[in-house]
């Protein structure tokens, strides 16, 4: 080989470089295989218990089926029937009312409690106490609150009469108070979970912002309004989405405490789905209501994500 040819071809790769590249590719392949191996059980569970039931739900929503006999394809008749059904409209109104009662109040209270516990001694203990209702079985909590809300011998009405001389309302049997009563229970149960999220958000705010504000003479209220709340907007956004999704799925409280009454004043969308499926045995109608609920939640979530660009701020 002459000198000119050697210069044009350049230096040939060494054997060590080739072996190193092969070893790197082999290691990467092995790591990928191990990764797929460890997530395989979760993927199987996701497909069997989530993806396949979701597809079947969409299919059954287009059919007329009592759960036992033959399935008859009816197209969109189940969905059209839902919007003509007075029970569905009642459930939708009650669910929206419940959402309005619980979501803003729960978020504000959780943020205030988190701010109050952020720098106090023993905050770990307080955090545990506030979070305990969040992990307690909702049915057990509902049974306890049935006793508290009892109009004749419940503790709430007893204290109202002894301390303030007020005759308490019939919390769970009056159409005006039943949904606020359920909302009060739900706010108490969910306060701890939202509070922990806000506490995590507060830990991520740099102290330099507050130090600079104090140097400029900002009051505590001004620091809260112009520093804490804006920098917690990303946490507030997440808590809002999760709270709205949870509020549209409320069922346990109304099922245990009131059975959807009185006069369907606590009849929610999920209760309507349950009632259509396991009381009336109209699984096609029930599934169409579930798919409609899914579409509502998805639409609200996408809408919140679009609007969030205007008010959510991230610390840089």
From TrEMBL:
Domain ABC transmembrane type-1: 92-304
Subcellular location per the Swiss-Prot or TrEMBL entry: Cell membrane
Domain of life: Bacteria
GO BP terms, alphabetized: transmembrane transport
Transmembrane segments: 33-60, 96-117, 129-149, 177-200, 229-251, 281-303
InterPro entries: ABC_transporter_permease (IPR051393), MetI-like (IPR000515), MetI-like_sf (IPR035906)
Membrane topology summary: Multi-pass membrane protein
Pfam families given in the database record: BPD_transp_1 (PF00528)
Keywords from the UniProt entry: Cell membrane, Membrane, Sugar transport, Transmembrane, Transmembrane helix, Transport
Major site of localization recorded for this protein: membrane
One GO CC term, this protein: plasma membrane
Family: Belongs to the binding-protein-dependent transport system permease family.
Protein name as it appears in the record: Multiple sugar transport system permease protein
Organism: Paenibacillus endophyticus
Top-level taxonomy: Bacteria, Bacillati, Bacillota, Bacilli, Bacillales
């Amino acid at each position: 080989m002459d000198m000119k040819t050697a210069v044009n071809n350049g230096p040939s790769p060494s054997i060590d470089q080739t072996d190193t590249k092969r070893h790197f590719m082999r290691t990467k392949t092995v790591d990928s295989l191990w990764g797929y191996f460890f997530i395989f059980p979760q993927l199987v569970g996701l497909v069997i218990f989530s993806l396949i039931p979701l597809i079947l739900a969409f299919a059954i929503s287009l059919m007329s089926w009592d759960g036992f006999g033959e399935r008859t394809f009816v197209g969109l008749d189940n969905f059209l029937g839902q919007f003509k059904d007075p029970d569905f409209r009642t459930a939708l109104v009650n669910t929206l009312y419940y959402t309005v009662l619980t979501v803003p109040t729960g978020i504000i209270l959780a943020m205030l409690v988190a701010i109050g516990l952020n720098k106090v001694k023993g905050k770990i203990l307080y955090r545990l106490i506030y979070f305990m209702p969040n992990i307690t079985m909702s049915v057990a909590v509902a049974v306890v609150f049935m006793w508290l809300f009892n109009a004749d011998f419940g503790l709430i009405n007893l204290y109202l009469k002894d301390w303030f001389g007020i005759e308490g309302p019939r919390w769970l049997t009056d159409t005006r108070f039943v949904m606020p009563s359920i909302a009060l229970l739900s706010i108490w149960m969910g306060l701890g979970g939202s509070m922990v999220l806000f506490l995590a958000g507060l830990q991520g705010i740099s102290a330099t912002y507050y130090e600079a504000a104090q140097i400029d003479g900002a009051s505590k209220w001004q620091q809260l309004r112009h520093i804490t709340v804006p920098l917690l907007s990303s946490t507030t956004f997440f808590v809002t989405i999760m709270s709205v999704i949870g509020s549209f799925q409320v069922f346990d409280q109304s099922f245990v405490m009131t059975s959807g009454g009185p006069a369907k004043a606590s009849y929610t969308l999920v209760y309507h789905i349950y009632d259509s499926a396991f009381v009336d045995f109209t699984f096609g109608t029930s599934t169409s209501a579930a798919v409609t609920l899914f579409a509502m939640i998805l639409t609200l979530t996408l809408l919140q994500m679009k609007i969030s660009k205007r008010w959510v701020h991230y610390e840089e």
